[in-house]
């Protein structure tokens, strides 16, 4: 029975990734169906992103305290209810409310990492974490593949029902399969810290996502940023004083953790920068002199090879980790992603060039997501896995928001005669390539294989062997004397 636990974790992450990505292809039709504006329709995506950003570290902490099984059941149930509400929504406010509830499902990421660390023996944890990270790319690829047929033959609402088909069985399977674990004695939840954390994070991310529409110097954006700063200061004071903080700030200072978080921020930027630049470039009219005049379907097809490459890279990252270590895998990511964007900054006049550069970028990002997850998991005690990976996922979300907004600003700044100029795309690709040089620096600072900072001591955790994921997963980490090594 325990052998099915990792598969359930993979499917849960896959279902959530699909629910997050599936709205993007449907946004124009969603706008028409709910009789709202483009900015209003975009809140169907923004609301879930904000909810996931806030809930992910909180859910990770709850999983560390009370065990991943009971928290997973609640999270999947809430996310399922949210997706049902969103799919049946008759107005934009109802849609946004449903997507906020669905965003709680972002907590499946830290919970899944905790489950994997509990169930897999140490020599297989790296491969499993890499495979888990690849589910993000697979969810995005699948959403683009099914979007066209579902929308054309069934309508856009049915596209929102697709993730429910995965979440409902996942809820039943989680109740039946995932083993229970005892809560930590005497542990509590820092609810004041959670409230302040949610407050400053929502204020900051709302300012980032609305900056283009409201104006970066508008009172609304400036006020939100000021509120975020004030709440962040209060949160830091609380976290330093409480006995059981929501986020142990000392943990965040560990070399394996902060380097992985920095890399996640930059990788998140690089992922979503391409998500903005590629579709705009493909659909730009040919009269612009460099656009392709393509359809939305052609823009979607361009994303598929990159998503498949990202998935394949994540699945193979465990093997590479065994050979060269997560630090070296992160170096490979920086070189591959930087090379892909660097190529596109100079060569983007033909579709094959977009396919080539985009696919190389996708492979690099697949390695990145697997490497940073493994760095975090290996750098923290078992009891802190959920909150540490939750924060890492959150920082990736912040990077993605920055990538979206900055790339859109660069393109908008180049508009002449009503059309974006080529210079905006060139600079957008170049900025992403340059930022990957930052990942290269971070990778050089990250702990080498066999070194993980815990309590100021470097200890060996290098895997001794790599086995197939298909067998031997019935061993439980708590029964393994080397589990907390």
UniProtKB/TrEMBL annotation:
It is found in: Cell membrane. Residues 5-450 form the Major facilitator superfamily (MFS) profile domain. The chain crosses the membrane at residues 37-59, 71-90, 96-116, 128-151, 157-177, 189-208, 214-238, 258-280, 300-320, 327-346, 366-382, 394-419, 425-446. The keyword DNA repair does not apply. It is a multi-pass membrane protein. This is Major facilitator superfamily (MFS) profile domain-containing protein. InterPro entries: MFS, MFS_dom, MFS_trans_sf. CDD domains: MFS_MMR_MDR_like.
């Amino acid at each position: 029975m325990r052998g099915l636990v990792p598969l359930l974790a993979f499917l849960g992450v896959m279902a959530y990734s699909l629910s997050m990505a599936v709205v993007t292809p449907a946004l124009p039709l969603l706008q028409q169906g709910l009789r709202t504006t483009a900015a209003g329709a975009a809140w169907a995506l923004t609301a879930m992103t904000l909810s996931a950003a806030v809930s992910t570290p909180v859910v990770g902490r709850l999983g560390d305290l009370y065990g991943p099984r009971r928290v997973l059941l609640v999270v999947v149930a809430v996310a399922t209810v949210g997706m049902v509400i969103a799919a049946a929504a008759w107005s934009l406010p109802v849609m946004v409310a449903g997507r906020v509830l669905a965003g709680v499902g972002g907590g499946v990421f830290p919970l899944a990492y905790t489950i994997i660390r509990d169930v897999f023996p140490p020599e297989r944890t790296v491969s499993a974490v890499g495979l888990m990270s690849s589910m993000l790319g697979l969810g995005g690829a699948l959403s683009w593949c099914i979007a066209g047929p579902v929308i054309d033959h069934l309508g856009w609402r049915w596209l929102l029902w697709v993730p429910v088909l995965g979440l409902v069985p996942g809820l039943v399977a989680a109740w039946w399969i995932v083993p229970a674990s005892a809560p930590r004695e005497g542990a509590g939840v820092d609810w004041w810290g959670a409230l302040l954390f949610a407050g400053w994070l929502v204020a900051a991310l709302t300012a980032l996502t609305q900056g283009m529409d409201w104006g970066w110097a508008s009172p609304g954006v400036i006020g939100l940023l000021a509120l975020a700063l004030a709440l962040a200061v209060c949160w830091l004071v609380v976290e330093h004083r409480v006995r059981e903080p929501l986020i142990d700030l000392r943990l965040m200072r560990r070399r394996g953790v902060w380097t992985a978080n920095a890399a996640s921020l930059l990788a998140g930027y690089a992922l979503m920068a391409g998500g903005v630049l590629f579709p705009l470039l493909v659909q730009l009219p040919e009269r612009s002199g460099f656009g392709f005049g393509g359809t939305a379907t052609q823009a979607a097809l361009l994303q598929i090879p990159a998503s498949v490459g990202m998935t394949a890279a994540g699945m193979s990252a465990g093997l590479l980790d065994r050979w060269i270590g997560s630090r070296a895998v992160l170096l490979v990511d920086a070189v591959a992603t930087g090379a892909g964007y660097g190529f596109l900054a100079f060569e983007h006049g033909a579709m094959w060039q977009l396919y080539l550069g985009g696919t190389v970028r996708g492979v690099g990002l697949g390695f990145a997501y697997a490497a940073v997850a493994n760095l975090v998991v290996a750098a923290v005690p078992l009891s802190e896995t959920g909150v540490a990976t939750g924060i890492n996922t959150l920082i990736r979300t912040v990077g993605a928001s920055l990538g979206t907004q900055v790339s859109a600003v660069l393109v908008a700044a180049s508009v002449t005669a009503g059309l974006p100029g080529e210079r905006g795309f060139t600079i957008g690709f170049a900025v992403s390539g340059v930022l990957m040089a930052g990942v290269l620096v971070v990778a050089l600072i990250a702990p080498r294989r066999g070194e993980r900072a815990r309590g100021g001591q470097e200890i060996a955790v290098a895997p001794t062997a790599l086995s197939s994921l298909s067998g031997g997963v019935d061993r439980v980490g708590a029964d393994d004397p080397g589990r907390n090594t």
